């Protein structure tokens, strides 16, 4: 004989089902990157010194920023929602939470790519020496000074200007246009033909205080 479910128990079962559904949603959408990778990412990046690849601005505090090519310390990794990284200047006076605005669900490889698009993990001296060995003095100096030269290979242009805001394919293959709209590159573009720079429109505008200091040090 089948026992009828009482209204009280029916209500309890309905609530239990709702809790299970909500728990599944939280598990998926609160931590898209599997939890076992969180400790690996923190061990790899937290507390490390890095250098800003572009001027980074705080996601909520207007006017709070750290200029391009500044040494910082990585103090927090935002592994939820659309991803972010928190960095501080060496004197601790400026703290920036820089958003990645990644598409959900958040994936490990996308997070690391966004992090490395925002920060260098090697010092300027180490990078410049490596670029001189690989590309020669002219190209190494251009990368250091954020200049894009004709016939530069695509990856070298990326080293100089960083990741584009948008990529517009021209046709199949390696013909495409990189569009930039960042604090240092306003409405700038690079046209590639056959995987090399064919045309450049715009220039990197480093924040004047940091850029002037670097140029003065190089001259002396």
Tell me what you see in this structure.
With 220 residues, this protein is α+β, with helices and mostly antiparallel strands. It folds into two domains: 35-120, SH3 type barrels (Roll); 136-219, Beta-lactamase Inhibitory Protein, Chain:B, domain 1, CATH 3.30.1450. It has seven helices and eleven strands. The chain has helices at residues 7-29, 35-45, 108-118, 124-135, 137-144, 154-161, 208-219; strands spanning 49-52, 56-57, 65-66, 71-78, 84-89, 95-99, 119-120, 166-169, 176-181, 186-193, 196-201. The strands form three sheets. Strands 6-5-4-1-7 form a five-stranded antiparallel beta sheet. A hairpin with a 5-residue loop joins strand 5 (84-89) and strand 6. Helix 4 (124-135) runs antiparallel to helix 5 and helix 5 packs parallel to helix 6 (154-161). The protein is globular, with a radius of gyration of 23 Å. The termini are far apart. Mean pLDDT is 86; it is low at 19-30.
List the helices and strands and how they pair.
Blueprint: H1 7-29, H2 35-45, E1 49-52, E2 56-57, E3 65-66, E4 71-78, E5 84-89, E6 95-99, H3 108-118, E7 119-120, H4 124-135, H5 137-144, H6 154-161, E8 166-169, E9 176-181, E10 186-193, E11 196-201, H7 208-219
Antiparallel strand pairs: 1-4, 1-7, 2-3, 4-5, 5-6, 8-9, 9-10, 10-11
Helix pairs in contact: 4-5, 5-6
